[in-house]
Design goal:
Helix content is 44%, strand content 17%. With 444 residues, it is of the alpha/beta class. Strand 2, helix 3 and strand 3 form a beta-alpha-beta unit. Helix 11 crosses helix 12. The longest helix is centred in the middle third of the chain and has 22 residues. The chain starts with a helix and ends in an 8-residue tail after the last helix.
């Protein structure tokens, strides 16, 4: 299964003075598979240490963190010689061994340079706590569920994926290709991008089997609550988890702590919510009232939206039936745009928009996403059907005069006036479009 991160891993491996690399991502997004595949394509040998399935590996780091000594112990433990140039050392589920995480600092400082990648399902939580974090001594990459282009490649539609990546703003999308892309986009909105879900669907061609896998992944996330948290925090996280369907389907999707329980307060539940975000299970989009570079500096911490990391898991969480796939517009309209917004959040995150933001003005206008791109702030309005009317986006464009503004819909025509309209399935190409686009005309 091809993943775009393989190109980034290749670039990392070719650096002359590369640091150990940490890959972050939620459980079951494919971190282990990606690293194994990368090793197979680029190294003679792979040395694999999983600190969750084999806790005894942790003892290799107890007495001495000097890199040569650790390598010597690893060679004995796995009965394999480590050639620094031709061997990839992979520390998996490294959050289970704080000393292994700390050792990355010493590997980076060593005169003998080794190829080392570390990953872990709950690594984001470990790093956010500051425990054993080798500041400045590692590089980072994030892995997310498959985006739409990766999905097309996974199901054998390589030429359609390539076509998607080559669409130009001046191009008319032919009916044949638009209908195909929309059909697969609808199926993708049900399946999402979790690798195991897609593998089962490809094997069986059965959406019900895919839904069973989605349900098992959601259950695995719930099991993580019990395994890694104190009882008091487990209760809070389970309350948040149980309230998510109500939260996602509200007309106003600003996160409300009182939706968890009538007496719930932010200070009681914010740590539990942050655990779900650090674990990669939820994505957070912060509100901005006065858009300025950097957006983080003008965001308001108390107001935000949340999304599931994967639209397929969202559908399973909401128990959306597969029958909605029969209508090209039905699946989006019946769920108040949450699926369209969730796919957009997922696509943006997978395409290096690490932080998500949206704009609101005194609760009178709201633009779904603001993108910080090459010192520009780009507004993006997500329309889930065929209606292109958007008073809020017009208000934003008139007030702030952005270089370019985007609006998505299910229309196939790419239109341009003061706002650039694109089909929803082209959200992942926005960065490419910004690069090729002249500034919009100023509105009076």
């Amino acid at each position: 299964m091809y993943r775009q991160i393989l190109e980034k891993l290749k670039n990392w491996s070719q650096k002359k003075d590369k640091k150990p690399l940490i890959i972050q991502g939620a459980r079951q997004v494919g971190k282990t598979y990606v690293v194994r595949e990368f090793a197979k394509l680029n190294y003679e040998n792979l040395v694999y240490l999983n600190f969750e399935t084999n806790p005894d590996f942790s003892s290799l780091f107890k007495e001495n963190l000097e890199s040569k000594e650790i390598v010597r112990k690893i060679e004995i433990a796995v009965n394999k010689k480590i050639d620094p140039e031709n061997t990839l050392i992979f520390f998996d589920e490294i959050q289970n061994c704080g000393l292994a995480l700390t050792s990355l600092k010493y590997f980076q400082e060593s005169s003998e340079k080794y190829n080392i990648i570390a990953a872990g399902s709950l690594l984001g939580i470990t790093l956010s706590s500051g425990n054993s974090y080798p500041v400045g001594k590692v590089d980072f990459l994030s892995l997310h569920p498959l985006n739409f282009r990766e999905y097309l490649t996974a199901i054998g539609k390589d030429s359609l994926s390539e076509y998607l990546s080559e669409i130009q703003l001046s191009q008319k999308i032919e009916d044949h290709f638009h209908n195909k892309l929309l059909k697969h986009f609808n199926i993708y909105s049900y399946l999402g991008g979790m690798p195991e879900v897609l593998n089962k669907y490809i094997e069986s061609n059965d959406l019900d089997i895919a839904r069973e896998v989605q349900s098992s992944i959601l259950l695995a996330y719930q099991n993580d609550f019990s395994k890694h948290l104190e009882p008091s925090e487990i209760i809070k996280i389970r309350k948040i988890w149980d309230a998510l369907p109500r939260q996602f389907t509200k007309e106003n999707r600003k996160f409300i702590f009182s939706a968890i329980a009538k007496s719930a307060r932010a200070r009681e539940y914010e740590n539990a919510l942050q655990w779900l975000i650090d674990a990669g299970i939820l994505l957070k989009s912060k509100v901005v009232e006065s858009p300025e570079i950097p957006l983080e500096g003008s965001s308001i911490s108390d107001y935000f939206k949340i999304f599931m990391l994967d639209v397929g898991l969202l559908g399973a969480r909401l128990n959306i039936d597969k029958s909605f796939l029969l209508d090209n517009t039905n699946i989006f309209n019946n769920y108040k745009g949450i699926l369209a917004e969730s796919i957009t959040a997922q696509e943006l995150t997978a395409n290096n928009m690490i932080e998500l933001y949206y704009w609101t003005s005194s609760a009178q206008a709201e633009v779904d996403f603001l993108l910080e791109f090459k010192s520009n702030i780009i507004p993006l309005e997500v329309k889930s059907g065929l209606n292109r009317k958007s008073k809020s986006l017009n208000t934003y464009v008139k007030k702030y005069q952005p270089k370019i503004a985007f609006r998505t819909s299910l229309h196939q025509e790419i239109t341009s006036n003061n706002i650039l309209d694109i089909p929803l399935y082209l959200v992942g190409e926005i960065g490419r479009f910004v690069d090729s686009r002249k500034p919009i005309k100023k509105m009076s």
